[in-house]
Fold this sequence. Notes:
The strands form two sheets. A five-stranded mixed β-sheet has the order 3-2-1-4-5. The protein is built from ten helices and ten strands. The protein has two domains: about 5-125 and about 305-340, ATPase, nucleotide binding domain (Nucleotidyltransferase, domain 5), CATH 3.30.420.40; about 135-300, 2-Layer Sandwich (Nucleotidyltransferase, domain 5). About 40% of the residues lie in helices and about 20% in strands. It has helices spanning about 40-45, 50-70, 90-110, 115-125, 170-180, 185-195, 220-230, 235-265, 280-290, 310-320; strands at about 5-10, 15-20, 30-35, 80-85, 110-115, 135-140, 145-155, 155-160, 270, 295.
Amino acid sequence: xxxxxxxxxxxxxxxxxxxxxxxxxxxxxxxxxxxxxxxxxxxxxxxxxxxxxxxxxxxxxxxxxxxxxxxxxxxxxxxxxxxxxxxxxxxxxxxxxxxxxxxxxxxxxxxxxxxxxxxxxxxxxxxxxxxxxxxxxxxxxxxxxxxxxxxxxxxxxxxxxxxxxxxxxxxxxxxxxxxxxxxxxxxxxxxxxxxxxxxxxxxxxxxxxxxxxxxxxxxxxxxxxxxxxxxxxxxxxxxxxxxxxxxxxxxxxxxxxxxxxxxxxxxxxxxxxxxxxxxxxxxxxxxxxxxxxxxxxxxxxxxxxxxxxxxxxxxxxxxxxxxxxxxxxxxxxxxxxxxxxxx
Length: 343
């Protein structure tokens, strides 16, 4: 028996809707997906404005759902469940996705399934052309979260290390802002870094030799601020600082990931979350894993950022594993702050 789950993602500044089918045997399939990014909406403010984000989710959710069903050539009656992001994220934005999903499920007399946003990222590589097998180490680098997890199965997660202040994504975005780059900063910094020298500035690698698997990027951000004030008014200097910043972040993520593999004895690494789209990180991790005989898995680039497919997938996989709390109640709650260890 296969499960068809329609998933809604609305935790921040992207409205994602997708339809995933998970057969009783065999890999899951993405039947259709649609995504609307709010980058232009928030660009003038230099960051996400929660009220504007919520209002835009309201406008986009149902039209995107219609588009997904049309692309998959399926009707609402063909769905088995409706999934939504319960948290973590912006409270108002989460409420929109949850409200739409639970209302739709109630109208169809179908169960609704609440999903942890980070679990969606963690499981997203199972929709890729090269899905992993359990167990594996996961480097989860999404927005304000940087974590290393041991993953033994669906719902079987052990936290190995996490950020104690700024996450890698925040380090990218905040450093980009210090360099005068537009929102969202991370991709712009990575593009500028291609023109610079990564060894131009001696930036710190916080906690690189701490002896544990925790992360800290606040000190790096402070160092970037100090150097940015000394920059000459030239594109070359900005590019060098961007390249040096990216190199520092990537080195920490790389060496901590290799340490996690050594500590666990596992030979499979999964990288998930928006920072997982960074080309330098991908290339350096691939070379390091090739040298060690480790299998490396990434989600497709379109599945690195927030999307509905990962939410539908996580719900379907938890349901298949007998872990999903499917409900037909026409009520819900959201959890803006929700550690992955608590699911």
